[in-house]
Amino acid sequence: MFVDMLAYKAEWYGRNIIKIGRFDPSSKTCSSCGSIRKYLMLKDLE
Fold first, then answer.
1. DSSP3 helix / strand / coil % (the chain, rounded to 5)
2. Where is the Cas12f1-like TNB domain positioned along the sequence (predicted)?
């Protein structure tokens, strides 16, 4: 139900939703170049 409401709001505001897998390394992926860091510590997430 949450995904349906989110999709509705995204469509309302002209945004896109990208659904990824549960175990995809999304926080380890660089937003600018797309490289993936193999090891990432909490102190690195500043």
1. 35, 5, 60
2. 1-38
- Residue pair 25/36 in contact (Cβ under 8 Å)? The answer is yes
Say if CB 27 and CB 40 are below 8 A apart: yes
Helices and strands (H and E) in the chain: how many:
1, 0
Structure confidence by residue, pLDDT tens digits, 1-46? 998 999 999 999 999 998 888 877 777 877 788 788 788 777 876 6
- Find, among 30, 23, 24, the residue nearest to 45 by Cα: 30
